[in-house]
Amino acid sequence: MQPEDELIWHLVKQIVETVFDNETPAARLQQVAILLTINALQNHETPLTTQRLGDVFGLGTAQTSRLVLRLVERGLVERQRVHNRQGRGHAYVLRVRETPDIAALRQAISGGNGDS
């Protein structure tokens, strides 16, 4: 399996192998889509917030927040509180939690040996 595929499978299996009480397969599928999107967009120039993520999927902030919170509960996503665009309130920048396994897979993808 290619490192890119291994990373994707590593992320997906964290959701499909651990089921919360009363959680439907459809809910897990939504979480997979959200997690993979966070992984893909987290390093873009524009910070990835819950609102921006919701815009990608056409979801409201409340629905997107619920999906993100499930991923936070699983220990897969980290949220960093920042000021919003207007500077008056706050938003959360989303990132996939960088575990040693994920870091190793990312390094394999980049072809790096750890020397930067």
Commentary on this structure:
- This protein is of the alpha+beta class and 116 residues long.
- It has a single domain (3-109), classed as Winged helix-like DNA-binding domain superfamily/Winged helix DNA-binding domain (Arc Repressor Mutant, subunit A), CATH 1.10.10.10.
- The protein has helices spanning 3-16, 25-41, 50-57, 61-73, 100-110; strands at residues 77-83, 90-96.
- A two-stranded antiparallel sheet has the order 1-2.
- Strand 1 and strand 2 form a beta hairpin.
- Helix 1 packs antiparallel against helix 5 and helix 3 packs across helix 4.
- The mean pLDDT is 88.
Beta-strand segment tally: 2
CATH level 1 class label: Mainly Alpha
In the CATH hierarchy, the architecture is Orthogonal Bundle
Q: Order of SSEs, N→C? A: HHHHEEH
What is the rounded Rg? 15 Å
CATH fold node name: Arc Repressor Mutant, subunit A
- The amount of helix comes to 40-55%
The low-confidence runs, each spanning 5 or more residues with pLDDT under 50, are none
The gist of it:
By secondary structure, this protein is α+β, with helices and mostly antiparallel strands.
Give the helix/strand layout.
Layout: H1 3-16, H2 25-41, H3 50-57, H4 61-73, E1 77-83, E2 90-96, H5 100-110
Helix pairs in contact: 1-2, 1-5, 2-4, 3-4
What keywords describe this structure?
116 residues, alpha+beta, 5 helices, 12% strand
